[in-house]
Amino acid sequence: MPSLPDIMTPNAEELAKQDGGKGGHAPLPDADQDAFFEFLLRMGDNALILGHRNSEWCGHGPQLEEDIAMSNIALDLIGQTALWLGLAAEVEGKGRSADDLAYLRDVWDFRNLLLVERPNGDFGATLMRQFLFDAFHFHLLQALTGSADPRVAEIAAKSLKEVSYHLERSAEQVIALGDGTEESRKRMQAALDDQWSYALEMFLGDATDVTMAASGIAPDPAGLRQAWDDTVLPVLAEATLDVPDSTFAHKGGKQGTHTEHLGYILAEMQFLQRAYPGAEW
Amino acid sequence: MRPAVSTIWDWLAEVPDPEIPVISLTDLGIIRDVEWQGETLVVTVTPTYSGCPATAVINLDIENHLLSKGVEHVMLRRQLTPAWTTDWITDQGRDKLRDYGIAPPIDGTAPDGDVMARVTSLTGRGNMAVPCPRCNSNDTRRVSQFGSTPCKASWVCNACLEPFDYFKCH
């Protein structure tokens, strides 16, 4: 099996202990499948909700090219969603499809990070969020290409190629706007300050992560922090932005406790399937 | 009727890409395998970008074209691994793209996550020259990493002033 550098970090062990030592025992096969399903929902829901947020810019971008870029990135993310949720449905084995998972679950069943459900704000705030997430997404997918489950590895390899372009673009834009005018810098700094504590949820592991790491399916998220810092900090420095020194992290999204914003997203996204069940394009 | 696999490949070479109709599906490199399993023809296709809306149309076009040639049972198989790469676009496909006004991909220029080394347009480091497909000038600049479809970027030529699409290395 290819090595996953972040699998057995001290954080994972610590979390396992906090979890009442359950992580120290071999998980039951059923528990494993439940954790696997949860993990796949997290992957799919992050892509789905951020994709939806990006699609809200369609027709509203500050420039035609940026409008198109936003829609293209949304498209990539929705395409990745179909792969992750398709696998989630397969693993769950209850006859649900990727579409069922996207359109017929309610707020408490979503497993996305709080960061991606936050309102877009201005263009700079949208880009800052995209950059913070892209850097995490990139390193997570890179680790997942070595997953013990080949289905996860192949979706990761496919997605990684797309996300590499997302990261390049958001990094460039963060630099252009951060190291831009007085007004644009002010807004980018505000966006960074505002989103930092939400971004840090990305590195909070829980029992699901411990189980996934122990089975070699996915890395412990805390282990991705160094790689993320190595990518993010030089870009923020180039963008002349000050990195917040707060270590506080909002949490809950990965476990299904969401902000009020997600309900509004689902109301719009799911309306058609709720009102006209089974409707097709 | 079970036509030879080589004949099937020839037929597939007649199916145009729905977004960029000057190149065929075989030029694009997305047909990975053609095989008879009993009386069923199994065609293995790999998607370009995971969210590319052309994927569904491509599958339909493959099926329709083969049915029109008299193949009765066609099964399409999706294959994600190895992930599609622009390296698989044929030389002929690249020439057709250029003639059509789309700069073909420059191999080996896909991003690798080393962002600071790649932040090219702002810092001038490692700038990549994409020759203009109209006037062949190397004096071109990128407008946006994303263009009219997921697979393309928007560029403009400083010499002839024409905007053009660049098929991104992927």
Automatic annotation (TrEMBL), chain A:
GO terms for biological process: phenylacetate catabolic process. GO terms for cellular component: cytosol. Pfam families: PaaA_PaaC. NCBIfam families: PA_CoA_Oxy3. This is Phenylacetate-CoA oxygenase subunit PaaC. It comes from Paracoccus aurantiacus. The lineage of its organism: Bacteria, Pseudomonadati, Pseudomonadota, Alphaproteobacteria, Rhodobacterales.
UniProtKB/TrEMBL annotation, chain B:
Residues 122-168 form the PaaD zinc beta ribbon domain. SUPFAM superfamilies: Fe-S cluster assembly (FSCA) domain-like. It comes from the Bacteria. InterPro entries: Fe-S_Maturation_MIP18, FSCA_dom_sf, MIP18-like, PaaD-like, Zn_ribbon_PaaD. It holds the Pfam family FeS_assembly_P. Residues 7-67 form the MIP18 family-like domain. PANTHER family: 1,2-PHENYLACETYL-COA EPOXIDASE, SUBUNIT D-RELATED, FE-S PROTEIN MATURATION AUXILIARY FACTOR YITW. This is Phenylacetate-CoA oxygenase subunit PaaJ.
